[in-house]
Amino acid sequence: MIKDMIDKQVIELKKLWANKRMLTFQLLNLAMIVFSALMIWKGLMFVTKVSVLLYWRFSRRIDCLFDDEMGWVDHNGRMSWRKYMLRCMLPLEDRLVSESPVVVVLSGSMEPAFQRGDILFLNNSVEKVDVGDVVVFKIKDRDIPIVHRILKVHQKPDGHVELLTKGDNNRVDDRGLYAPGQLWLEREDILGKAVGTLRYVGMVTIALNDYPVLKYVLVGMMGLFVLTSKEG
Amino acid sequence: MHTVWVRLNAVVFFGLTVLLCLSILAALSKIGHTRYHQPKIHKLALNQLRSIKNHGGVDRALLSFDLHADMTPAFHWNIKQIFVYVVASYKTDTNPNNKIVLWDRIIEATDPPSAKIIKEENVFVKYGLMDQGAELRGREVQLQLMWDHMPLTGTLYMGEQAKDTTSTFTLPHDYL
């Protein structure tokens, strides 16, 4: 049956090659799919930005959240709608948005709450992280971010915080995971606070990471099907 | 091309869409739950201060507390577990705000109903009350119960004991 299928695909491809007009049409089709995926991705990023700014506009805490050299806010710390619209068109500072708004849980250190393969939605626009918050942090010179809960918060007079984290399912706190000699995390180490979860979706990512060949197989198959499939 | 694969593809994607929609609906279904269902915290107070010592330049106090709380109302069908924790907060000269978890417990939705009612006396802390420096003596410490709702799918949100029902105690001025 599979051989049958492959034969069919080959025949379809040969037909396509012979009919250049059809080939162009199918290639354009493929391009359309790729570009719409890109558009959705970029669109989502824009929506995130707009909502982050909107949140700040109403929470009236904009003044402390970005360096206001351009005079976006008035002396009350408020931003007019016109300026808000303008601000949305400009890129947002890196530290104000999560590096990635979604992470996949890779370890069982937060079980039973989060299991390997769950995805977490992050929010990094929160100015303060508090004790008990589940946060995603990254240790310097290490690639993989870690999802754990904040166990201790020590706040200095200037508002600067020093944090200690621990996995719910771990026996000890995270000092052993930090860089050698590092005792505390700081706000900058935190990529975001976990605000939501969706189960199992991350399994796909884990599978793709564990078996990189899968990526090419999947993309290749999808491309082939788009090229050879006919409407109706 | 009405092959098996096209149909399989359609079924899988339709299935995934339905699952996603159901997840979103499940996530939305908790709206308004906390307004009408709040856990009842009857008591959270210091029972006994066991020790306060200096370990290598850092102050550490060990203590036990009484905790009576009914966490049952916090559960609803989209809750997988509640993470309950006791927070000690205090002020020192170097740190105007310190918050430290002294004790925590995971209550799963599948646990028997009796596990959702915490009624314990003289609970020893899981994590010592440890300062960043040596400034613990003579400080006033507030104990507050907090909990994190961890859903099957959807948003995480916190709950905490009302500030006016929390208890405080003062640590002695000398090491003990």
Q: How would you describe this structure to a colleague?
A:
The complex is a heterodimer of chains A (232) and B (176). Chain A is α+β, with helices and mostly antiparallel strands. Chain A has 2 domains: 2-93 and 215-228; 102-201, Umud Fragment, subunit A (Ribbon), CATH 2.10.109. Chain A has helices at residues 2-18, 20-59, 62-65, 81-89, 203-210, 212-228; strands at 102-104, 119-123, 134-137, 146-155, 161-166, 190-198. In chain A, a hairpin with a 5-residue loop joins strand 4 (146-155) and strand 5 (161-166). In chain A, helix 1 packs across helix 6 (212-228), helix 2 (20-59) crosses helix 6 (212-228) and helix 5 (203-210) packs across helix 6. The radius of gyration of chain A is 24 Å and the shape is flat. Chain B is α+β, with helices and mostly antiparallel strands and 176 residues long. Chain B folds into 2 domains: 1-30; 35-170, Immunoglobulin-like (Sandwich), CATH 2.60.40. In chain B, strands 3, 4, 7, 9 and 10 form a 5-stranded antiparallel β-sheet that branches. In chain B, strands 1, 2, 5 and 6 form a 4-stranded antiparallel β-sheet that branches. In chain B, strand 1 and strand 2 form a beta hairpin. Chain B is elongated, with a radius of gyration of 22 Å. At the A-B interface, strand 4 and strand 6 of A face helix 1, strand 3, strand 4, strand 7 and strand 8 of B. Strand 4 of chain A pairs antiparallel with strand 4 (97-108) of chain B, so a sheet runs across the interface.
Number of helices, where a helix is a run of at least 4 consecutive DSSP H or I residues of chain B: 2
Biggest sheet overview of chain B: 5 strands, antiparallel
Total strands of chain A: the figure is: 6
Q: CA-to-CA gap between the ends of chain A?
A: 23 Å
CATH class of the largest domain in chain B: Mainly Beta
Share of helix of chain B, binned = 10-25%
- The unreliable regions of chain A are none
Characterize the quaternary organization of these chains: heterodimer
Residues in helix, % of chain A: 40-55%
Beta-strand proportion of chain B:
over 45%
Widest sheet, order of strands of chain A? 1-2-6-3-4-5
Task: Compute the average pLDDT of chain B.
Answer: 92
Decide which structural class fits the backbone of chain A.
alpha+beta
Query: How many helical stretches of chain A?
Result: 6
**What structural class do you assign from the helix and strand content of chain B?**
alpha+beta
How do the helices and strands follow one another from N- to C-terminus of chain B?
Answer: HHEEEEEEEEEE
Subcellular location (chain B): Endoplasmic reticulum membrane
Keywords (chain B): Endoplasmic reticulum, Membrane, Signal-anchor, Transmembrane, Transmembrane helix
Pfam family, one (chain B): SPC22
Family (chain B): Belongs to the SPCS3 family.
